[in-house]
Design a protein that fits this description.
Distance between the termini: 58 Å
Number of helices: 7
Shape: extended
Strand content: 5-15%
Order of helices and strands: HHEHHEHEHEEH
Number of strands: 5
């Protein structure tokens, strides 16, 4: 009734999570197109619009400033609330190489993602055919809601008090 009551099919947006299967997303888009619209914003629009605005205001660019090559130079990487094995598969090979190079990786996530614990690269036949996976996170923390922000505040406080020369 709500859809039929619209003056135009373009008054509605059809959005689905990136966690939906390709088949479910296809059927949902087919339904929307049969309804008469092509309003299917992707998750970048819906999920990252607010963070993009904040990033422009704080660092001058609306997306992350880290590139995969940065992992080659890092001594430590902190992963907050991400599921790179699921959502950022290219990042997993960068994390794998960093871990193998001695970089210490600390993950903060309520969801235990297996790839952040141990990762077998699909580009390595040896790892796929044997149990030879790389340990990714040297420490994996599963804080309660807001606990990750408390950890970040504590880290910032420590740096400002104990190593102010590290802040440029």
């Amino acid at each position: 009734d709500t859809l039929k009551g619209l003056a135009s099919p373009d008054e509605v947006e059809f959005y689905t999570s990136g966690r939906a299967s390709n088949e479910a997303s296809y059927l949902y888009q087919l339904f929307g197109r049969l309804f008469g619209t092509n309003n299917f914003p992707d998750c970048s629009n819906m999920c990252h619009e607010a963070s993009g605005v904040a990033l422009i205001q704080s660092v001058g660019i609306g997306k992350g400033t880290v590139v995969l090559d940065d992992f080659d130079q890092a001594d430590a990487v902190f992963v907050y609330g991400q599921n790179p094995g699921t959502n950022h598969p290219r990042m997993m090979n960068a994390l794998r190489q960093a871990a193998r190079g001695g970089c210490k990786i600390v993950s903060f996530n309520n969801l235990k993602e297996v790839a952040l614990e141990r990762f077998a690269s699909p580009q390595s036949p040896l790892e796929l055919l044997t149990p030879a996976a790389t340990t990714i996170s040297h420490q994996y923390l599963t804080p309660k809601l807001g606990g990750d922000m408390a950890a970040m505040r504590g880290m910032a406080k420590y740096i400002l008090e104990e190593a102010p020369e590290a802040v440029d």
